[in-house]
Amino acid sequence: MAEQFSLPSSGLAEDVLARFIEQAQLEVDRDVTVSSGAEGEATLQLVTFRLGKEEYGVDINSVQEIIRGGGITAVPGAPPHVSGVINLRGKIIPVVDLRRRFSRPEIEANEEQRIVVVELGEKRLGMLVDSVRQVIRFSTSLVEEMPEDATTAEASYIRGMGKLDGRLIIILNLNRALLL
């Protein structure tokens, strides 16, 4: 069984962190180790989000914060999948629209959209997503590689598919998914 952590509707970093700490403290208090596989088996912890009906996941260690989806300034000459930049506490961060990056139809801006700020080595980038769903932890044995017949070489940004309680979660390789 996977551990699930629902994000607050506000999407504010402080609310997310407070809820995450509260959940972690409950686990410590109960002295429970959550794992979907055998004892000692490796687990993967993901922040999951939606693009349309599909659910995606990225390693929680790459995620710096989650903010509301507005305030993006367009940049002339940017690649088509880059919506623009945001000013996050004095740092300029490029924002990749994952719908454009994955050749999905665009939607109108709405209150559910979030920017997931991730760190890749020395770079910080934002990912514009339809909504953020939850933080989950599950056994790496529940992750399968994508069948070669299911994707093209250009879609090498998919690290694998997580199978969890009847759901399929597309796990992204951020280094490839966010190439600028």
Structure characterization notes:
A seven-stranded mixed sheet has the order 1-9-2-3-12-11-10. It is globular. The chain has three helices and twelve strands, in the order E-H-E-E-E-E-E-H-E-E-E-E-E-E-H. The protein is 14% helix and 43% strand. The chain has 180 residues and is mainly beta. Strand 7 and strand 8 form a beta hairpin. The relative contact order is 0.22. The chain has a single domain, classed as Beta Barrel (OB fold (Dihydrolipoamide Acetyltransferase, E2P)).
CATH superfamily: CheA-289, Domain 4
- Cα-atom radius of gyration: 17 Å
What is the CATH architecture assignment? Answer: Beta Barrel
Please write the string of helix (H) and strand (E) elements: EHEEEEEHEEEEEEH
Identify the quaternary structure here.
Answer: single chain
Number of helical elements: 3
CATH topology: OB fold (Dihydrolipoamide Acetyltransferase, E2P)
Strand content: 35-45%
Low-confidence stretches: 25-37
Structural class: mainly beta
Shape: globular
Which CATH class is shown? Mainly Beta
Number of strands: 12
